[in-house]
Every structure is written in C-alpha cells, then in structure tokens.
Design a protein that fits this description.
mainly beta, Beta-galactosidase, Chain A, domain 5, 5-stranded antiparallel β-sheet, isomerase, carbohydrate metabolism, Aldose_1/G6P_1-epimerase
C-alpha cells in the first residue's frame, strides 16, 4: 500500500493535525509525526496500516456485505482512549456501494475522523489521467490552507475561484493555477446543507468519464470532503502490471474538517465515552451517455 493509502480506511483521525498536537479537556496530547511537523491519517501506523478482523460477511443475495472490526488501544499513535471500530461495505441494487463506519469511544474523549481513501478512474485503472473527468461538487465553501496544508481556520466561498465546481466542469480546467498539492487539488470542501438534521445524508459530488459514460454520485453525512487529484502519485506499481502516474485517479474523502480538533469554529470531531461516531457514504454508479447537470 506504500504511502498512497490505496483503498484504505484511514484514521483514527484522517487528514492532518497541525504540529502533531492538540488540547482536549485541558490536557495536551502529542502525536507521532509523519507529515513534516504534522500528523496525517492517524500517524505512521494509523488505521490504514493495521490488520482488521472480518466480523461478518454475506456473499449471496441482492445485498452482499462484509464487516470489518478493529480495536484501537488507549494511547495508540498518541491518541487518548480505546475505540471499537466497525466498517461495513455493502453492494445493493441497482448499482450502489455503501460504506458505514461506526466507532464507539470506550473510556476517554478523543477525536475521531475516519475516511475512505479510494482512488477513482472511471475510464479504467490503466487509462491515464482523470483531467477530462467531469466533476460537480455540492459544496459552496472550502477551508483554505497554509503552506503546510493546514487549514487557516477560515471557511471561504468557492465562487469565482479555482476551487469552484458548483457546475460540472472537467477536473483539469484550472489545474495549472492551483497552488501547492503537487500541482493539483488537495483541498477540503464544506458540504452544503450540513446545518439541517444531524447525520442526514446529503449529495456531495457527481463524477463522470465522458469517454466511457461511467458515472457515480456520492452521498454522505459528513461536513467535509477532501478532493485530491493524486498529485503526488508518481510511478506507483498497480494491478495487472500497470503503473499509476500523477493525476491517474481522484479521491473524494468524506470527513470532518482537517485539524478540526485545533479549530473551535469547525464542526466538532470529538467523541466522548459511550457516544457512537457514525459516518455513512454511498456511491451510486450509473451509465450516462450525456450528463444532466
């Protein structure tokens, strides 16, 4: 899996925590650094680097599924509190893939932010870059970052910027003027409609490959989504002898806002003992000869 987190379930806190530290209930916690001075995706041995246990699987019928379990220890990678983590992947008709993440804090308050780190190339995994994929995002704001990819704390409108995917446009339209991120996108967006019912499913994004007509719509119940264009993917060895290059796929990682534990104005990522973190996402696949915006 290298450092690209192909298809991984990353945590306990996905994305970055500034300076690998945070204060919770008056106590300072120091984490293991693995992204300069920061922690990313839970540390050097976050959830994407551990062995999970298969708790249940059903391979027949209309809705096959598999459920994975991981017990995270108090102090793991520097985080407080033990966690029981369940992730269920399920296929359902007509062409849906749902991922449901449930996490229970056992004994201490702790930040929790799981994210699925799947890479998508709807033209096929050996077909080159995704710059012509068409993307629409249901997110009218984003969280600007500093030179270390840490949010500044601002939540800014995307209108009129290179981050505006409010209408369907090719991914590569503004790629050359996007700062940082290896020359591409690596940015958290604030999903619209999050001020409604808590944990309600909302549309996040639509993606379509114009050549094949393959498309999906992503729904989730999280406040943010990280849009990443595999900018740092350089000659990664892939399936069937293929080699994956820069912009060879895109990620849409539904999540809490990055570094939320250090920004009181961001939606909280703290889970307290007895509480259950619920993160649901659904990919709805289709074939679209033409795209309805």
């Amino acid at each position: 899996n290298g450092s690209a987190s192909f298809g991984a379930m990353v945590g306990r806190v996905a994305n970055r925590i500034a300076n690998a530290r945070f204060v919770l209930d008056g106590k300072t916690y120091h984490l293991l650094r693995n992204d300069g001075n920061s922690t990313i995706h839970g540390g050097p041995k976050g959830f994407g680097k551990v062995i999970w246990t298969v708790k249940e699987h059903v391979s027949h019928g209309d809705s096959p599924y598999i459920t994975f379990y991981y017990h995270s220890l108090d102090g793991e990678q520097g985080f407080p509190g033990a966690l029981d983590v369940y992730v269920k992947y399920q296929l359902s008709r007509p062409y849906d893939l749902s991922i449901r993440m449930n996490v229970t804090a056992r004994n201490k308050a702790t930040p929790v932010n799981l994210a699925n780190h799947a890479y998508w190339n709807l033209a096929g995994h050996g077909s080159g870059d995704v710059l012509k994929h068409e993307l629409q995002m249901f997110a009218s704001h984003y969280t600007p970052v500093d030179g270390s990819m840490i949010p500044t704390g601002e939540v800014a409108p995307v209108a009129g910027t290179m981050y505006d995917f409010g209408r369907r446009i090719p991914v590569g339209t503004n790629m050359k003027i996007v700062p940082g991120g290896g020359g591409g996108y690596d940015m958290n967006y604030a999903v619209d409609g999050q001020h409604g019912q808590q944990n309600a499913m909302r549309p996040v994004a639509r993606v379509r490959d114009p050549k094949s007509g393959r498309a999906f719509e992503l729904w989730a119940n999280q406040p943010g989504v990280q849009f990443y264009t595999a900018s740092w993917l350089i000659n990664e060895k892939g399936k069937a002898g293929k080699v994956y290059g820069q912009y060879g796929a895109l990620c849409l990682e539904t999540q809490a806002y990055p570094d939320a534990v250090n920004h009181p104005n961001f939606p909280s990522s703290i889970v307290r003992p007895g509480q259950v973190y619920k993160h649901d996402m659904v990919f709805r696949f289709s074939y679209q000869a033409t795209y309805d915006a």
